[in-house]
Amino acid sequence: MSSTVSHCKNCQRFRSEGVSFHQFPKDRELLKKWLIVVKKDDSFKLTKYKLVSSDHFTTTDFIVVN
């Protein structure tokens, strides 16, 4: 699987060290925000295989749970 973001070269199979992959959120309001950021419209079909690599987030975007 690879990142859904256009021009992103990250791939789960050959991922760089420190790169993680994230599924789109199920929450509709948060999903809308993600779709805007990754430049996808409402016709974009979500599947469990559509992912966004951590390269498209900042460290403040993550909530670390121990």
UniProtKB/TrEMBL annotation:
GO terms for cellular component: nucleoplasm. GO terms for molecular function: sequence-specific DNA binding; zinc ion binding. Keywords: Cell cycle, Coiled coil, DNA-binding, Metal-binding, Nucleus, Transcription, Transcription regulation, Zinc, Zinc-finger. It comes from the Eukaryota. The keyword Metal-binding applies. Gene3D superfamilies: THAP domain (6.20.210.20). It is found in: Nucleus, Nucleoplasm. Residues 1-66 form the THAP-type domain. Its main location: nucleus. The keyword Nucleotide-binding does not apply. It holds the Pfam family THAP. Belongs to the THAP1 family. This is THAP-type domain-containing protein.
